[in-house]
């Protein structure tokens, strides 16, 4: 079996993208407990939302008092994209300066170790693999006591399950630096050329498939669906949830202990997407796309009607697209209309010499001003707050676009799992489905692959006491 290209590549791509910014689920941050599986048990969120006075207070500069200057070292992929947010933070806390420690393609743990060895330990970090490895190496501070006394978190209303993907053995080890949403990108000009109107926000997977067939014209080199791994990575996974065959993305069960990818219903979902290539002809295989110059592998070329997009595609679309584009939420299935979102984990390092200041940087992410800035970059709001919901209508990012679809994507988001699942990097959900949907691999290979991983993750979970 070919070495898995899967999760490390995906996490890197998704995080780098997200973390170029624009990564919903979690109970009230004060009460979210931890289940035996390592996921935080959902708890009730406080009613209401931060008052306008509380929001204003959280956005004001800290009161004048004497502080020694502090420089926080932040291990991050941001590479200049967050400079404006660093400045906003410094204006609120004038004695604290953010110094980004670039990753430059290295494993984050190696960067942290190098900082320690140099006698300049880092304070906060983004996470590039799983929380289990970071926790086993004693790298992360438990945020629970900081969150419990934080005025910003106490006044915030958080989505149910907010900490589920960030909690391990009862410890809240990270918060979302950013909630990266995804949408269906739509080439409205290509639809109009074939007499198709922009679908409504309550469209279905059957609508998606039928329109994709209707606008396909091989003689013109035009196809309904972009040949991109994101289609199976995000949309196949979402359809399995939408039709009631999986509880979580990547075909995971409710408590994230087992994959259901090898069940007949999920395998039929894979066949459904495979038929876009083999039966409908509305999406090219990898081989066919390569033979025709890979024009249909990039939505920006204007030759395909639908693609998956997130915040990372917005700058190029806004600056380079020569056609009229828009967004739609993921389609409805038989039972629901789930979206897809990625949390970019942000954690405090146990070796930090400035833990109180480090937590101020973490908690600052959940002020209204910081959240508005992230919406302007294409991210989801991480708070349940009417002021932020209304701000989608005002954000320059979405003027002239389908703003309601953006709100629906935020409301319906299901968070990508993985960072608290044992042996996640060896779960071969990604490569095998790429090879089946875009290639010629036997779909029945899913069964032994999934059975082997299910056994291994359970054994590892038991050995870790999860």
In short:
The protein has 466 residues and is of the alpha/beta class. The chain has helices at 6-21, 52-59, 83-92, 108-117, 131-136, 144-148, 151-155, 188-193, 205-214, 229-242, 264-278, 286-291, 314-320, 355-364, 368-376, 386-394, 403-411, 429-437, 446-464; strands at residues 33-34, 40-41, 70-76, 96-102, 124-126, 167-168, 171-172, 175-187, 223-225, 304-310, 325-328, 341-348. It has 19 helices and twelve strands.
What does this structure look like?
- The chain has helices at 6-21, 52-59, 83-92, 108-117, 131-136, 144-148, 151-155, 188-193, 205-214, 229-242, 264-278, 286-291, 314-320, 355-364, 368-376, 386-394, 403-411, 429-437, 446-464, and strands at residues 33-34, 40-41, 70-76, 96-102, 124-126, 167-168, 171-172, 175-187, 223-225, 304-310, 325-328, 341-348.
- The protein is an alpha/beta fold and 466 residues long.
- It folds into 2 domains: 6-180 and 341-411, D-Maltodextrin-Binding Protein, domain 2 (3-Layer(aba) Sandwich); 182-340 and 422-464, 3-Layer(aba) Sandwich (D-Maltodextrin-Binding Protein, domain 2).
- Strands 3, 4, 5, 8, 9, 10, 11 and 12 form an 8-stranded mixed beta sheet that branches. It has a two-stranded antiparallel ribbon with strand order 1-2.
- The two termini are 29 Å apart.
- Residues 1-59 have low confidence and may be disordered.
- It holds the Pfam family SBP_bac_1.
- Residues 1-23 form the signal peptide.
- InterPro entries: Bact_solute-bd_prot1, SBP.
